[in-house]
Write a structure and sequence with these properties.
Blueprint (H helix, E strand, L loop, with lengths): L1 E2 L3 E3 L4 E6 L2 E7 L5 H27 L5 H16 L7 H9 L1 H39 L6 H14 L5 H50 L5 H18 L4 H48 L7 H18 L4 H29 L1 H31 L2 H29 L1
Antiparallel strand pairs: 1-2, 2-3, 3-4
Helix pairs in contact: 1-2, 1-3, 2-3, 2-4, 4-5, 4-6, 6-7, 6-8, 7-8, 8-9, 8-10, 9-10, 11-12
Length: about 400
């Protein structure tokens, strides 16, 4: 019989392995020496130990899921327990059993990670549903449909959460999409109806515009075109295939009329050039009245100039505003002097100013009396307060006296 630390070879060439539960036969080796027999079964042990080591690395490196690791360890343990090999099988079993707590920790970590992902997915799905419901309540028909498709893709990329929450959120999301789609279709159907109605209105407006194109009633027709333009804008867009064509006809009619009007106005402006020169001469007389030295004379002169101004008639269009502004400036200067004289002679305001002066003088006299008493008693705090009060009232008195002098002047 040949023995080693973990096994022996009996005389009948049966090879035994020693375990914590005792010996058990692992096979026979009829040929070769006992040492070769032990070496043969020891090599099997080495191969088994290598498999255990590889499994340890995979489990400890979390290269397999906890469930897969559990099944692999279970299968390997059964293989080690029943192994026809010579070596420290008990140690291998211990190493495999030591992987149990590792797998348990990994299982808990995976569960925590999965719970976090589920919680994040629930938050994302709630956000997707909220966005969809907001879109469903709005009227962004251009971008809403694309955004809902993006939200659907985001939803599909997320993992499922608990069934009840997932189903409830999906129902809300689906309801929002359905509601938006229904309202969008209704909106475009209404838009089509409005465009058809606008087409009818704009066809009528084009005919009216074309009928006015040859008119020489410049003022009345220009007003009519403004009304037509207002109605055109109010009608809204017509179908795209006719909108540009109708607008082109409408615009051409306007251009025809206003082009003819501009030519007529240009000819008329040349006739008004002499009127402009006459008004400029009147302005020289009018502007000589400023600054005003004699209000009544200035008022008589400006009335006479205004009558002569109106009698001259129209001037070229580009001169209307500059000439009118210069005349208005003279009139305003004379009017300002008149208003200032009235303000200064207003008896009611003068009386109020005089009353204010009298009241302030009376109040100042009382404060001066109180101040003398405070100085006599040596109440320095009271003296300071009364001096400050007196200075303030005297300042107000000066302003009131100036105002009273303005009115009396």
């Amino acid at each position: 019989m040949t023995t080693s630390e973990w096994g022996r070879v009996a005389e009948d060439r049966t090879v035994y392995v020693r375990t914590a539960d005792g010996e058990r036969a692992v096979g026979q080796y009829p040929e070769g020496t006992p040492e070769e027999a032990l070496a043969f079964f020891a090599k099997r042990y080495d191969e088994l130990a290598g498999s255990v080591h590889l499994l340890e690395q995979r489990v400890q490196g979390a290269l397999v899921s906890p469930d897969e690791a559990t099944e692999a360890v279970k299968a390997m343990r059964a293989q080690v327990v029943e192994a026809n090999a010579v070596g420290d099988l008990t140690a291998l079993v211990g190493r495999l059993d030591a992987l149990g707590p590792v797998i348990s920790v990994q299982r808990q970590a995976r569960k925590a990670e999965r719970d976090l992902k589920v919680a994040a997915a629930k938050t994302d799905k709630e956000r997707i549903v909220a966005d969809a419901e907001k879109i469903a309540e709005g009227n962004d028909w251009r971008n809403g449909a694309n955004r809902l498709r993006q939200l659907l893709d985001e939803w599909k990329a997320l993992p499922r959460i608990d069934r009840a929450s997932d189903d409830q959120l999906w129902r809300r999301f689906s309801t929002a999409r359905t509601s938006y789609t229904r309202r969008r279709k209704l909106h475009f159907a209404e838009q089509n109806e409005k465009r058809d109605a606008a087409r009818v209105v704009k066809q009528r407006l084009v005919k009216e515009a074309e009928g006015l194109a040859k008119s020489t009633d410049w003022g009345g027709t220009a007003a009519s075109y403004r009304d037509l333009m207002r109605d055109w804008k109010a009608a809204g867009p017509a179908p795209r295939d006719v909108e540009d064509e109708l607008w082109g006809r409408f615009r051409a009619a306007q251009d025809t009329f206003f082009g003819a009007r501009d030519e007529a106005m240009a000819a008329q402006d040349s006739e008004f050039a002499a009127n402009g020169e006459a008004k400029e001469k009147l302005l020289v007389e009018a502007e000589a009245l400023v600054p005003v030295t004699d209000l009544e004379a200035a008022k008589r002169a400006i009335r006479d100039l205004s009558e002569r101004w109106d009698a001259i008639g129209k001037v070229p269009r580009e001169k209307i505003r500059p000439l009118e502004d210069r005349m208005k400036a003279v009139e305003q200067a004379i009017r300002s002097i008149e208003q200032e004289q009235w303000r200064r002679s207003d008896p009611e305001k003068s009386a109020r100013a005089d009353d204010m002066v009298a009241k302030l003088e009376e109040a100042i006299a009382k404060v001066e009396k109180d101040l003398d008493a405070a100085r006599t008693s040596g109440n320095q705090k009271k003296v300071s307060e009364l001096e400050e009060n007196l200075a303030s009232r005297r300042s107000f008195l000066e302003m009131a006296q100036r105002a009273s002098a303005d009115y009396s002047g």
